[in-house]
Automatic annotation (TrEMBL):
<dbReference type="InterPro" id="IPR001036">
    <property type="entry name" value="Acrflvin-R"/>
</dbReference>
<keyword id="KW-0812">Transmembrane</keyword>
<feature type="transmembrane region" description="Helical">
    <location>
        <begin position="12"/>
        <end position="29"/>
    </location>
</feature>
<keyword id="KW-1133">Transmembrane helix</keyword>
<dbReference type="InterPro" id="IPR027463">
    <property type="entry name" value="AcrB_DN_DC_subdom"/>
</dbReference>
<dbReference type="GO" id="GO:0042910">
    <property type="term" value="F:xenobiotic transmembrane transporter activity"/>
</dbReference>
<protein>
    <recommendedName>
        <fullName>CusA/CzcA family heavy metal efflux RND transporter</fullName>
    </recommendedName>
</protein>
<dbReference type="Pfam" id="PF00873">
    <property type="entry name" value="ACR_tran"/>
</dbReference>
<dbReference type="GO" id="GO:0005886">
    <property type="term" value="C:plasma membrane"/>
</dbReference>
<keyword id="KW-0472">Membrane</keyword>
């Protein structure tokens, strides 16, 4: 076959030369219209689902969260592969789609299936779709330091001042503060005092859950004017939490500090971050 092609080409030299010149000319014309990109888009449709499950071991995360989500993702339109990672308190699932599937359409498909599969998951766990990012993306590490400052105060500056401003920058897909100490309210009930006042742990839980929130009371008309009724309860003061009423005994309110010890403590950490060895 190869010998036949060589002999035919030698017998028709002029035709072969004309075809070659035509191909070269067509290539030069098409080259002028081809788009050029130093960093072409190599992103395949990828949707990342992250679910935090504080306190669960990897086995429970796999069976209670990861596996049910994988079941509902199976057979999604355009989906090619599902990968997952289950660690202590965290489930991460990667749903990959074909190259021709738009990433925003893929996210819509995943969201619809998550809504259907939420019934299979235990209550209290909320899967979250991670922002759209690129395989060609970059990660910038920035440190915030303060000599002599409380690590909890530094973390609050990172969470509530620096991170929101970074998220407002065009092209930033995600900002993840790490390190420092996350401030938490720490309420330790005293069982003897609970028994003395006849207070249950459920009473304390309900009082703490409703602490620090504003509520509305509608409006009232007076003197041809409409006045808005508001219950201003939002606060971050530790003293306000101590004085929360959790029940009434003998006609007198029982305050939280009477049956529990309240303080600010850092949240339990798994991992840390440092800067220049500190």
């Amino acid at each position: 076959m190869f010998r036949f092609l060589v002999n035919a080409s030698l017998r028709s030299r002029l035709i072969i030369l004309m075809v070659a010149v035509a191909c070269v000319g067509y290539g030069l014309v098409v080259q002028r219209e081809l788009p050029t990109d130093i960093f072409p888009d190599l992103n395949k449709g990828l949707v990342t689902i992250m679910t935090e499950a504080y306190g669960l071991a990897p086995e429970e995360v796999e069976s209670l969260i990861t596996y049910p989500i994988e079941l509902v993702m199976a057979g999604a339109d355009g989906m090619t592969r599902v990968r997952s990672t289950s660690t202590t308190g965290l489930s991460i699932i990667y749903v990959e789609f074909d190259w021709d599937v738009d990433v925003y359409r893929a996210r819509q498909i995943v969201t619809e299936r998550l809504n259907v599969g939420s019934e299979r998951m235990p209550p209290g766990f909320q899967p979250v779709l991670m922002p759209v990012s690129s395989y060609m993306g970059e990660i910038l590490l920035t440190a915030i330091t303060g000599e002599g400052m409380d690590p909890m105060k530094i973390r609050e500056i990172a969470d509530w001042v620096v991170a929101p401003r970074l998220r407002a920058i065009a092209g930033v897909s995600r900002v993840v503060p790490i390190g420092g100490l996350v401030r938490e309210y720490h309420v330790i009930p005293d069982l003897l005092r609970l028994e003395h006042f006849g207070i249950t742990l459920q009473d304390i839980e309900e009082a703490v859950a409703s602490f620090g929130s504003n509520t509305g009371g509608g409006v009232v008309d007076q003197s041809a004017q409409e006045f808005l009724i508001r219950n201003l309860g939002r606060t971050t003061s530790l003293e306000d939490l101590r004085n929360v009423a959790i029940g009434i005994r003998g006609g007198q309110p029982v305050l939280l500090y009477q049956v529990a010890n309240i303080s600010f403590v850092p949240k339990q950490r798994r991992g840390d971050a440092g800067f220049q060895g500190s």
